[in-house]
Amino acid sequence: xxxxxxxxxxxxxxxxxxxxxxxxxxxxxxxxxxxxxxxxxxxxxxxxxxxxxxxxxxxxxxxxxxxxxxxxxxxxxxxxxxxxxxxxxxxxxxxx
Length: 96
What we know:
Shape: globular
Largest sheet: 3 strands, antiparallel
Mean pLDDT: 96
Distance between the termini: 6 Å
Strand content: 15-25%
Strand order of the largest sheet: 1-2-3
Number of helices: 3
Number of strands: 3
Low-confidence stretches: none
Helix content: 40-55%
Order of helices and strands: EEEHHH
């Protein structure tokens, strides 16, 4: 699992807006709208998958761990947040 596009984010108020940039940016006709936690998850996802190919479940587990450590939340809350963001990204068509 990895992002299909590279995104550049801009914070406006409490919302992070992500626009696709780079070679295939024209293929994504939209903008990602995320809160702070969603932005954190997407940023970590991009970092994790840029370095090496990791199985999807391992990516999810690492994202959950990162969220737990960054925001000091319990594992079920972190898992729910990661699941919601992953589903959002899938619905937007930005995951491979």
